[in-house]
């Protein structure tokens, strides 16, 4: 290092030390300052009813949900994650495969089923009855072809089948010709 570089480095170090010392000027030590309680959310606590499987039959469980708009989508998202550890210990399983986007469209839940994905009757019942428990009258499964065009609401266009839940079973419902 050159003598000039050494002096510059020493000057910078001295300036840093002076600035550090001055930074604390005028601040007096205080005792412990107490704050109020942490804020708490208030309001209604929503619960989502989900349907998993136990011994090959639909089994109901509840989880904390989100109140208001988006509640239905949240219940389906919880179902797609699968049973919690506690639910698995109680014997709950799922047949629901990974699925595409899902969203409320008018009075129906639309769920995109990726190409090549097969829904078993029990997986379909899990989804449809979970949505029905959230006051969704029907679920529409959209089966797009590879490279399908994007339609309204940003969902791919494809063959659509609709179901409702009756006696813990997914029962097909007829769509009007305009809907799919």
From TrEMBL:
The keyword Signal applies. Keywords: Signal. Residues 1-23 form the signal peptide. This is Histidine phosphatase family protein. It comes from Bailinhaonella thermotolerans. The lineage of its organism: Bacteria, Bacillati, Actinomycetota, Actinomycetes, Streptosporangiales.
